[in-house]
């Protein structure tokens, strides 16, 4: 069952400005609630964040009411889905919401994300909540600081509702490699949410929170976004500070965003982007206001993507991809053409080299990054009488098997005598891949592909077949190797579950051109007529 | 930080490598935020580099054996940089502070923390690279050196592996005359940047150890020499020259006792005439230049003896510790194959890119270095002994330069500094920066004596007053009315007075006992309160003594 996609009817156009345009010191224009008349933002129907903002400033709803609504649904759905490893006390969330309401009542400034409930992947440090990375070795660990991304969200008024489940330290594609629990896909509870940011994707999909942070080393934001039918953005490497993100593979890791709309994803990205003095690899480039040029569906011209050059990566729709996924992507390509863009196939001959190169590089870096989990300073320490045993036992008991496997692979690849054959060669492949993407993005504005070769699979289906699991990353790892930004958004369904399973379209852009991806993604999303990607489980109770 | 506790690592206190035992006390893990041993906060004063050797502690092995062998010595030196903050975080580092009081998530290696390079580290590395006549890599990078040890929070050390910031240099030095003198040039293989590790504090009873991370992340430069040295003295002088260079540059305090300058030496021997190298032995725990010298000489003798007895197979690749008490080296650990540190490029830090302008800017700002100073002093006509003394300590050299640049007589200035001033500093345990005599006053003092305003004797008295209390030469001379009397009439009057008051002695003198001239001179000097110009005094005295009355 492939959904047919029709461009929505296009109405007359008028410029729309989000209330969050213009960069100030606080990165968003802070709005004094009484200082200006509140007009309902035209995009509010496309963005939960803007809708909440409108409701608060117009006093239609209080932050407590908004929080209550999400907390109610969270309480109701969490036992089935299991998105979270740690939840903030409801009272604490409501207290933060009350503080926002009090400020609004006193006509004080509130941040642009005031009252927005955010979920944070548990490998991103939060000072007031445990941060385990999904690993037993950090069971109960509480960092003494907030990750820069979390700090920026809090500074803008967001409320962190909890820490989401993940494959241990981000190593996995189904969230089954978590040391603590299995998360279910809200579209079909017998299926995985994808991974490693499965908890963050499921939480947004089930509307347990407004938006969430994930991390993407080889596809860990994009593949679960595809599986859970939400928008997921992997920013350019360096766009978002990694400070406070527990390192898996430092040269590939990036914090990414989940939202139930492209606009929310873009607003979230804007909030967390920008140079950070605490991360030497974070970029000093200006951060554009990604969503300020967004137009509402009703104001789009008939062919809003006129002239946009779109390259469909041939190698991603070859064999090995589910036919349903292939059809959905072809449907998406047709939709892009109807919107005015020129879709052609492009070939990236080095594409298939990405997977082995990725697994060598990521494992190598992880074997080093995870050395700090030695039981000496924090986390679980084995009881023992000898130093070597302390290391061995703490790590043997603390790490799960997937993590151990990658540490072993990485240690091997970096060992004297093997370095040239593995690590060095993988770096050479990485350079080739970067060049081929650069060439393809010279001829095209964006590249498209599926986000994963299949829709969500059954829990347990691939757990004992790591190679099949690794092969599922084929669509996404190249983008990390090239350091490019990519947006995944739902574009259709395949059969499965009670209402079908969502399929994600991946759009890849040039480095630091998230703006274009978000703009195209937004138009694509707004013109997908009649499709609300809301799982059947909660369709009735969505906050509006 | 309250939620993150340091815990005890319980290991044997005597060996610092991971084969030790650890034990839990009552099954409880102890927080090491409190210290078990208090270290003194007083900083060691910078002692000028000086190799001391007591003859009787030298090798007891007959010279005969060692004479048949040639030693090959190379040195790896770690210099702790005196940057205000650590290499990759903003923690300050002060030697001797309470354990774990200067730490943060970054230097503790907490999950999610990232290093950001302190640019001073690059500046200091470039300075030292240039001072050691190295070729600089305009594009270098950091790498991770991986191993497990409790004092290494991240499980890897950020270092530089295949592309160090500086390579292929050399260092010039002059051996002191007491060791035979002579100029030496030793090759420098490389200089690279890295971070220091923390320290383990061992409990008194040896039951457990605790980790102090104050030193973790402090920037180091590792300097690797070519195996160009042949004797303990050469090696010790190499280290002393390196200390002079880092102190001249101001990149490190170079104190060996504090561990700011640490030397590990590699020693091998081969029969004279043989071209291939023998088995290399590494010696650690060398806390002074003299221990470098003695440890190497001991090791050369040990190896030579084994070799001469046909036991050269007992010379194995190992790390040996120098035991200061026993004056010998002992096995610390045998090396079983090469350690595999699995180096790879540090992905958290960008490449280190230097521009030629940056390098040139630093090159132009380099101070005069010890070797240049010695050559300049030599050209000024000073003896090698004086040259070595004055150039040894950068502060002494700067003091000397300040006096001669103000026109002081070179030899006289050198003599004052090396003589009475050095003796005073030694007695009072002061550095030259702590004495109250300003260089310009030393200039004035020397000029006043040379110009005859005061006598040399009074000059010395003034000197000690100035050293202890400060002030100006002119002020003291005026205050104490010390100006030399050069008026012949006035001196003549004093002579007359003395002669008239001592008629008996005058009689004797004129009777032929001319030795009494000294007595009269002394009496005149006494009533002049030492201020009479001695030459003039004697001239007038003689005239009057010999005058026909
Ligand atoms: Zn620190």
TrEMBL record, chain A:
GO MF annotations, alphabetized: ATP binding; glutaminyl-tRNA synthase (glutamine-hydrolyzing) activity; hydrolase activity, acting on carbon-nitrogen (but not peptide) bonds, in linear amides
Catalytic activity, as annotated: L-glutamyl-tRNA(Gln) + L-glutamine + ATP + H2O = L-glutaminyl-tRNA(Gln) + L-glutamate + ADP + phosphate + H(+)
Keywords linked to the UniProt accession: ATP-binding, Chloroplast, Ligase, Mitochondrion, Nucleotide-binding, Plastid, Protein biosynthesis
Catalytic residues of the enzyme: 121 (charge relay system), 196 (charge relay system), 220 (acyl-ester intermediate)
Name recorded for this polypeptide: Glutamyl-tRNA(Gln) amidotransferase subunit A, chloroplastic/mitochondrial
Function: Allows the formation of correctly charged Gln-tRNA(Gln) through the transamidation of misacylated Glu-tRNA(Gln) in chloroplasts and mitochondria. The reaction takes place in the presence of glutamine and ATP through an activated gamma-phospho-Glu-tRNA(Gln).
Known partners and oligomeric status: Subunit of the heterotrimeric GatCAB amidotransferase (AdT) complex, composed of A, B and C subunits.
UniProt family annotation: Belongs to the amidase family. GatA subfamily.
First-listed, main subcellular location of the protein, grouped into a coarse class: mitochondrion
EC number(s) stated in the UniProt entry for this protein: 6.3.5.7
Keyword Protein biosynthesis: yes
Source superkingdom: Eukaryota
Other observations noted: This protein may be expected to contain an N-terminal transit peptide but none has been predicted.
Places the protein is found: Mitochondrion; Plastid, Chloroplast stroma
UniProtKB/TrEMBL annotation, chain B:
One annotated Gene Ontology cellular component of this protein: chloroplast
Enzyme category, top tier: ligase
Protein EC: 6.3.5.-
UniProt xrefs under InterPro entries: Asn/Gln-tRNA_amidoTrfase_suB/E, Asn/Gln-tRNA_Trfase_suB/E_cat, Asn/Gln_amidotransferase, Asn/Gln_tRNA_amidoTrase-B-like, GatB, GatB_C_1, GatB_Yqey_C_2, Gln-tRNA_amidoTrfase_suB_CS
Entry-linked Gene3D superfamilies: 1.10.10.410, GatB domain, N-terminal subdomain (1.10.150.380)
Primary location class: mitochondrion
Alphabetized GO MF terms: ATP binding; glutaminyl-tRNA synthase (glutamine-hydrolyzing) activity
Catalytic activity: L-aspartyl-tRNA(Asn) + L-glutamine + ATP + H2O = L-asparaginyl-tRNA(Asn) + L-glutamate + ADP + phosphate + 2 H(+); L-glutamyl-tRNA(Gln) + L-glutamine + ATP + H2O = L-glutaminyl-tRNA(Gln) + L-glutamate + ADP + phosphate + H(+)
Domain (Asn/Gln amidotransferase) ranges: 398-545
Region (Disordered): 39-61
Entry keyword set: ATP-binding, Chloroplast, Ligase, Mitochondrion, Nucleotide-binding, Plastid, Protein biosynthesis
GO biological process: glutaminyl-tRNAGln biosynthesis via transamidation; mitochondrial translation; oxoacid metabolic process
Similarity comment: family membership: Belongs to the GatB/GatE family. GatB subfamily.
Biological function: Allows the formation of correctly charged Asn-tRNA(Asn) or Gln-tRNA(Gln) through the transamidation of misacylated Asp-tRNA(Asn) or Glu-tRNA(Gln) in organisms which lack either or both of asparaginyl-tRNA or glutaminyl-tRNA synthetases. The reaction takes place in the presence of glutamine and ATP through an activated phospho-Asp-tRNA(Asn) or phospho-Glu-tRNA(Gln).
Oligomeric form and interacting partners: Subunit of the heterotrimeric GatCAB amidotransferase (AdT) complex, composed of A, B and C subunits.
Protein name: Glutamyl-tRNA(Gln) amidotransferase subunit B, chloroplastic/mitochondrial
């Amino acid at each position: 069952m492939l959904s047919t996609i029709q461009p929505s009817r296009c109405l007359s156009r008028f410029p729309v400005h989000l209330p969050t345009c213009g960069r100030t010191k606080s990165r968003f224009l802070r709005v004094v609630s009484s200082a200006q008349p509140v007009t309902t933002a035209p995009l509010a129907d496309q963005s939960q964040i803007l809708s909440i903002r409108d409701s608060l400033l117009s006093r239609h709803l209080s932050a407590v009411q908004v929080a209550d609504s999400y907390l109610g649904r969270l309480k109701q759905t969490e036992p089935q889905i299991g998105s979270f490893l740690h939840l903030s006390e409801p009272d604490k969330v409501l207290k933060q919401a009350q503080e926002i309401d009090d400020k609004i009542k006193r006509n004080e400034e509130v941040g642009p994300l005031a009252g927005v409930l955010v979920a944070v992947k548990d490998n991103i440090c939060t000072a007031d909540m445990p941060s385990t990375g999904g690993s037993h070795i950090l069971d109960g660990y509480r960092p003494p600081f907030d990750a820069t991304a979390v700090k920026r969200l809090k500074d803008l008024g967001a409320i962190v509702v909890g820490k989401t489940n993940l494959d241990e330290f981000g190593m996995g594609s189904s969230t089954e490699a978590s040391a603590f629990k299995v998360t279910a896909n809200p579209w079909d509870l017998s299926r995985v949410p994808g991974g490693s940011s499965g908890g963050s994707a499921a939480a947004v999909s089930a509307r347990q929170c407004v938006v969430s942070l994930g991390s993407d080393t080889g596809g860990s934001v994009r593949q679960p976004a595809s599986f859970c039918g939400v928008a997921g953005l992997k920013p350019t490497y360096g766009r978002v500070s990694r400070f406070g993100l527990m390192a898996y593979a430092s040269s590939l890791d990036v914090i990414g965003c989940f939202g139930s709309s492209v606009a929310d994803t873009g607003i979230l990205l804007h909030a967390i982007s920008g140079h950070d003095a605490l991360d030497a690899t974070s970029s000093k480039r200006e951060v554009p206001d990604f969503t300020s040029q967004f137009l509402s569906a009703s104001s789009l011209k008939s062919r809003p993507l006129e002239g946009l050059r779109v390259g469909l990566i041939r190698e991603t729709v070859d064999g090995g991809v589910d036919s349903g996924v292939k059809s959905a992507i072809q449907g998406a390509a047709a939709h892009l053409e109807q919107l005015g863009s020129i879709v052609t196939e492009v070939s990236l001959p080095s594409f298939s080299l990405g997977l082995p190169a990725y697994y060598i590089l990521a494992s190598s870096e992880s074997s080093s990054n995870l050395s700090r989990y030695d039981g000496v300073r924090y986390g679980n320490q084995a009881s023992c009488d000898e130093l070597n045993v302390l290391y061995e036992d703490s790590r043997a008991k603390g790490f799960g098997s997937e993590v151990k496997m990658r540490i072993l692979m990485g240690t091997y690849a970096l060992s004297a005598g093997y370095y040239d054959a593995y690590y060095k060669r993988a770096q050479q492949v990485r350079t080739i891949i970067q060049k081929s993407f650069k060439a393809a993005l010279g001829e095209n504005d964006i590249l498209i592909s599926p986000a994963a070769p299949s829709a969500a699979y059954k829990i347990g289906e691939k757990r004992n077949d790591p190679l099949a699991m690794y092969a599922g990353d084929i669509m996404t790892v190249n983008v990390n190797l090239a350091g490019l930004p990519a947006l995944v958004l739902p574009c259709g369904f395949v059969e499965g579950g009670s209402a079908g399973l969502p399929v994600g379209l991946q759009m890849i852009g040039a480095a630091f051109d998230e703006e274009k991806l978000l703009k195209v993604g937004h138009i694509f999303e707004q013109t997908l007529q009649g499709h609300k990607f809301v799982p059947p489980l909660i369709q009735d109770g969505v906050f509006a | 930080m309250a939620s993150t506790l340091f815990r005890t690592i319980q290991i044997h206190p005597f060996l610092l490598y991971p084969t030790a035992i650890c034990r839990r006390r009552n099954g409880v893990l102890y927080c090491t935020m409190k210290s078990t041993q208090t270290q003194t906060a007083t900083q060691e004063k910078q002692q000028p580099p000086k190799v001391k050797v007591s003859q009787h502690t030298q090798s007891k092995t007959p010279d005969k054996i060692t004479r048949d062998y040639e030693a090959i010595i190379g040195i790896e030196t770690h210099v702790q940089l005196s940057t205000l903050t650590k290499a990759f975080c903003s923690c300050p580092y002060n030697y001797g502070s309470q354990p774990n009081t200067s730490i943060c998530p970054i230097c503790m290696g907490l999950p999610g923390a990232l290093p950001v390079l302190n640019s001073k580290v690059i500046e200091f590395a470039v300075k030292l690279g240039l001072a050691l006549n190295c070729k600089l890599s305009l594009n270098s990078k950091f790498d991770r050196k991986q191993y497990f040890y409790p004092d290494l929070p991240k499980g890897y050390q950020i270092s530089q592996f295949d592309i160090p910031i500086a390579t292929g240099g050399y260092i010039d030095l002059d051996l002191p005359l007491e060791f035979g003198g002579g100029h030496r040039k030793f090759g420098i293989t490389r200089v690279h940047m890295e971070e220091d590790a923390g320290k383990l504090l061992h409990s008194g009873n040896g039951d457990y150890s605790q980790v102090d991370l104050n030193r973790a992340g402090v920037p180091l430069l590792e300097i690797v020499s070519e195996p160009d040295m042949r004797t303990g003295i050469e090696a010790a002088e190499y280290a002393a020259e390196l200390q002079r260079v880092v102190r001249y540059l101001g990149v490190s305090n170079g104190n060996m006792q504090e561990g700011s300058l640490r030397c590990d030496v590699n020693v091998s021997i081969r029969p004279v005439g043989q071209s291939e190298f023998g088995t290399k032995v590494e010696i650690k725990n060398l806390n002074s230049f003299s221990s470098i010298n003695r440890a190497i000489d001991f090791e050369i003798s040990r190896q030579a003896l084994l070799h001469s007895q046909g036991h050269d197979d007992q010379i194995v690749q190992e790390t040996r510790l120098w035991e200061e008490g026993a004056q010998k080296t002992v096995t610390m650990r045998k090396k079983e194959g090469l350690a595999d540190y699995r180096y790879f490029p540090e992905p958290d830090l960008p490449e280190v890119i230097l521009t030629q302008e940056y390098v040139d800017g630093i090159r132009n700002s380099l101070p005069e270095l010890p070797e240049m100073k010695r050559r300049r002093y030599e050209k000024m006509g000073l003896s090698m002994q004086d040259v070595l003394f004055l150039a040894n300590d950068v502060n002494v050299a700067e003091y000397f330069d300040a006096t001669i640049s103000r026109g002081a007589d070179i030899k006289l200035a050198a003599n004052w500094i090396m003589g009475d001033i050095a003796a005073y500093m030694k007695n009072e345990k002061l550095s030259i920066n702590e004495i109250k005599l300003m260089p310009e006053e030393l200039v004035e003092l020397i000029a006043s004596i040379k110009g005859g305003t005061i006598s040399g004797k009074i000059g010395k008295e003034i000197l000690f007053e100035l050293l202890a209390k400060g002030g100006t030469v002119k002020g003291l001379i005026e205050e104490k009315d010390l100006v030399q009397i050069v008026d012949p009439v006035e001196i003549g009057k004093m002579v007359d007075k003395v002669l008239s008051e001592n008629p008996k002695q005058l009689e004797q003198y004129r009777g032929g006992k001319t030795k009494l001239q000294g007595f009269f001179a002394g009496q005149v000097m006494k009533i002049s309160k030492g201020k009479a110009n001695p030459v003039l005094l004697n001239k007038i005295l003689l005239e009057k003594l010999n005058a026909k009355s």
